[in-house]
Amino acid sequence: MPPVYRPMTVADIDATTYIRKAALDELARSEGHEPEPWTPRRYPHFEHLLRTDPDGSWIAELDGTAVGYAMGFTRGPIWFLAQLFVRPEVHAQGMGAMLLTRSMDAGQARDASVFSVVSSTSPLAQALYMRAGMFATAVCYRMHGPLAALTTQPRTSARVVHADDRWAERLAALDRHAFGAERTLDHRLYLDASAWPEIEHLAFGIERDGALAAYGYVDEDGHIGPLAAFEPDDLRPLLRIAGDWLSARGVESAYGFFPSNNPTMLAAVLSASWRIQHWTFLKTTAPFGRFDCYLPSGGLLL
């Protein structure tokens, strides 16, 4: 039977978890690696994208069974493909291309002028995105290492502030500079304690003359990001704030997602023996944002 394409719903999220796992395990084996141990986990990002961009999320079914999916979102002029996975058993049947097209159509309907993705190392995926006009502009490294990489960074002489009732709105100018568009909706996700009941987060910033010069997020698992600043030099003090907060909780290591066009951040962690765990590629139809001033939270670019 030919595949059926339909909008994704919240009820599909658990199925997509296993589609993603199967695709990533197959990629690991094709590159000579054993798949990493894994426990199913339902992240709040996916419900978030279904609320903010339901038109960008699609399911591919064969005989009523979900076998592939795509999730894309639009922020200002930027459309970003957060996820696209197809089960390995049905690769090379054109479903990935159809899912991509339907999700990109949502960006075009919202007048997006830049289309982008963080692509895996899969040759099939890279070719798919290049055919859609998206070409690599950076390598993105997932890195992990000792907390000393953060706690030895310089402290800021400016005022350190924590999230308040107007936090999401106060970050708009910073996001337009660093990311290329406002992301008020995404900050509200990070600030929603009910979305993260099992883990403590800190939202913090650097303030000068009453205006935010930089912001950052860190959680007690040691995950750092997103971070953003008007000037690259303010990124290192953000690392220090995050490191001191983690250290006070007895955390010994941390991790983050580092684009190759952010030399400030890469230099800071490489000098402290952080290791590259794996890498992906930022592909885009046109440049956007200031990644020398921006550290994404991860491959979803939220």
Polypeptide structure, described:
- By secondary structure, the chain is of the alpha+beta class.
- The chain folds into two domains: 4-133, 3-Layer(aba) Sandwich (Aminopeptidase); 142-278 and 290-295, Gcn5-related N-acetyltransferase (GNAT) (Aminopeptidase, 3-Layer(aba) Sandwich), CATH 3.40.630.30.
- It contains ten helices and 13 strands.
- It has helices at residues 13-30, 44-52, 95-109, 123-131, 148-151, 167-170, 172-178, 184-191, 235-247, 263-270, and strands at 4-7, 57-62, 65-75, 78-86, 114-119, 135-146, 159-162, 201-208, 211-219, 224-229, 253-259, 275-284, 294-295.
- The strands form two sheets. The protein has an eight-stranded mixed sheet with strand order 1-2-3-4-5-12-6-11, with helices on both faces. A five-stranded antiparallel sheet has the order 7-8-9-10-13.
- Strand 4, helix 3 and strand 5 form a beta-alpha-beta unit.
Q: Could you outline the blueprint of secondary structure elements for this entry?
A:
Elements: E1 4-7, H1 13-30, H2 44-52, E2 57-62, E3 65-75, E4 78-86, H3 95-109, E5 114-119, H4 123-131, E6 135-146, H5 148-151, E7 159-162, H6 167-170, H7 172-178, H8 184-191, E8 201-208, E9 211-219, E10 224-229, H9 235-247, E11 253-259, H10 263-270, E12 275-284, E13 294-295
